[in-house]
Amino acid sequence: MCARLATKRFLEIRQILLQSPQPSRSLSTALNYHIDSPDNSPDTPWEFSAGNKGRVKEILSHYPSNYKQSAIIPLLDLAQQQHGGWLPVSAMNAVAKVVQVAPIRIYEVATFYSMFNRTKVGKYHLLVCGTTPCMIRGSREIEEALLKHLGVKRNEVTKDGLFSVGEMECMGCCVNAPMITVADYSKGSEGYTYNYYEDITPKRVVEIVEMLRRGEAPPVGTQNPKRIRSGPEGGNTTLLSEPKPPPCRDLDA
Amino acid sequence: MTRCIQCTRCVRFASEVAGVQDLGMLGRGSGEEIGTYVEKLMTSELSGNVIDICPVGALTSKPFAFKARNWELKGTETIDVTDAVGSNIRIDSRGLEVMRIIPRLNEDINEEWISDKTRFCYDGLKRQRLNDPMIRGPDGRFKSVSWRDALAIVAEVALQVKPEEIVGVAGRLSDAESMIALKDFLNRMGSNNVWCEGNGVRPNADLRSGYLLNSSISGLEKADVFLLVGTQPRIEAPMVNARIHKTVRANHAEVGYIGPPTDFNYNCKNLGTGPQTLLEIAEGRHPFCSALLAAKNPAIIVGAGLFERKDKDSILSVVNSIAKLGNVVRPDWNGLNFLLLHAAQAASLDLGLVPESDNSIESAKFLYLMGADDVELDELPSDAFVVYQGHHGDRSVYRANVILPASAFSEKEGTYENTEGCSQQTLPAVPTVGDARDDWKIIRALSEVAGVCLPYDNLSGIRSRISVVAPNLLRVDEREPALIHTDLKPDCQQKLSTEPFSSAVDNFYMTDSITRASKIMAQCSASLLSKK
Questions:
Q1: Residue A2, annotated ligand binder?
Q2: pLDDT above 50 (res A21)
Q3: What is the number of structural domains in chain B?
């Protein structure tokens, strides 16, 4: 009897596990290989803009001249900012030329880091933190609200090209979970910002998106008006007095 | 790619040994993959070696995959003849068929690699083969005949013409045994117009240092400056090129190149395209001179393609003066090298296959082609009688009057000397096809029919004959360095032409009758060479 019940229960659990859809674990925005498209092919010329050429030089000056490849990541970042938030294959080739390595060495780096987008993203790329503390505090609902409001799937760009939503792993502000990051590529590499919006709710995140759409700058950091940065809601509840100096023996005595 | 364990040996091989940065590790974590990211082929002449180094069999040989099981194969340790390097290989055969070719370790020659041409040319051994002796009838069609009839006709014609009108040419795949038999036979017929293709007119066969890679292949690793004169080692001898690449990587050796534009897989300065640049270096006017003079062990590599040029002697004397200038030839280091193109070349010069007359083809009435498919036959008189002895129905067969089928390198025991002067022997891996015979046996039989019987009946007999002419050929697997150096050569007054050097090999994948018959090699040339 007991065994039969246990078997039944086991089968039920198994059924539930089989039914639950496996969430996509693809964190990067593209495949591991390149597919030619009109806006992304090795034949399209790509160059650092005149203003960024100076920054390229500045970045290269941080490293010894025989270790130019150390500049791959900062240069890819700069190229991504310049190109509206994503890296076409020709931009990677341009970086390869600057640091004098074979293009495949750049592709290896660009495919390794999920922060390098190899497909188009919106002018505002919204990244929802999906790691445990944020997840417990409701990051899935935040993402759902975003996707529903914008009418897109994850890693898809809205029709007006303004927004795209992605997932990111721990952004390191768990005390203010849940949170999103907005990478703002609307003003090129000069006006590029990368801001955290913390303590958000599904309602607040839609408000933030609408403010961005209107060109306003929502206040960064915690969105809970009762908190100051990562401090407790409603002010401190402990450590209220002036901190005492550390004990020290009287040296004059 | 399901078997791949991401050990990156192929990635490292591609960038460190083959010198092509095409492969990389893409993605991360469980999504990691080996790939090229953009769609392209791995354009290396050593790409087949990734099959051997892949520990799990994720990369396999496409022509061999699912064709045979390992335990069905018989391995025969032999050597490769598709270029002058003489890479050590193992031919795996099943029954009558060569199933695959894989490298054998020889640190002095090919290390543990072989070129793609060596590895994949074996399907050429099954196609276009000559099975039976054949005679061209009056209607221009070939008819199979018996050996007796074929030899009788050849001997009859050979005895009718004047001795000086008899010409013999050894092909690029000939072994030493057959070449000495050919020379002995023609000498007994009264002619001394015998040579090996690729050696050019009036080859320098007097001093071995004048045609060998004197530093030895492994010795190239000691060099710190290379000057490549009219040679493109990447397509002429990929294993030598791998050695240069290794040296460039290890001690940042400087490489200068004179010749037509070509691909290098290491840093290489293109100094010029013709003899003028060579002259500038010899006179100390070229900026490369400073590198040459500062070098401890400079190495000059002269391509055998230059042997075919009219101003060959003057080019070689300029090279000699560069060697003197840079102190390239010293008692402790000989950096003046010649890179040969074909497996038969070194042995043919050792055996003295040097024609008496410069333009014997024009006056030939009886032409004996022993596997020679790349001889210019335009000048040949139309009434000349051409005998083609070989294993493939290739270019020369179109002009032949009689065909005598011979066995290929995988089917006979033969001695080959490689470009550095190391003699090695092939062993028969599979039986030969049809009624074919070993080259030297055919000539021996023919000599008897012609009434000038050669005095050897077996391999040891012919080898004792070789020991009289070139004893070094019998010291197998031993490199015999040249002892006397080129200083003894008289100065040459020939005029240096301004014509730039041309490339000796147009298509790396198709250089001889076996590779030209190979379907895989044809596919390689179609897909790899069109990209360039």
A1: no
A2: no
A3: 3
The answer to whether the Cβ–Cβ distance between A108 and B33 falls below 8 Å is: no
Domain membership of residue B96 (yes or no) is no
The pLDDT value recorded for residue B204 is: 84
Is A248 assigned a ligand-binding role in the annotation? no
Q: What domains appear along chain A, each with residue ranges and CATH number?
A: 42-119 (1.10.10.1590), 124-222 (3.40.30.10)
ipTM of predicted complex? 0.85
List the beta strands (DSSP E) in B356-462.
366-370, 385-390, 402-405, 414-417, 422-426
Which of A43, A108, A114, A118 is the mutation pick for testing B, counting most B CBs within 10 A?
Answer: A108
A134 is in an annotated binding site: yes
* pTM score: 0.88
**Residue at a domain's end among B20, B37, B60:** B60
Residue B36 sits at the chain A interface (C-beta within 8 Å): yes
Closest CA to B227 of B289, B170, B169, B175: B289
- pLDDT reported for residue A209: 96
Residue B427, Cβ density class (10 Å: 0-12 exposed, 13-18 middle, ≥19 buried): middle
Instruction: Determine the average pLDDT of the residues in B19-37.
Output: 91
pLDDT band at A26 (very low <50, low <70, confident <90, very high): very low
CB contact under 8 A, B31 and A32: yes
Tens digits of per-residue pLDDT, A78-117?
999 999 999 999 999 999 999 999 999 999 999 999 889 9
Tokens of B195: 């040579």
* B85 found inside a domain: no
Whether residue B294 sits in one domain with residue B365: no
Please return the burial class of B442, using the count of CB atoms within 10 Å of its CB with bins 0-12, 13-18 and 19+: buried
User: Which domain CATH number covers B55?
Assistant: 3.30.70.20
CB-based contact (8 Å) between B34 and chain A?
Answer: no
**At B2, which amino acid appears?**
T
Residue of A26, A37, A104, A116 to mutate, testing the B interface (most B Cβ within 10 Å of its Cβ): A104
Q: Are B328 and B226 contained in the same domain?
A: yes
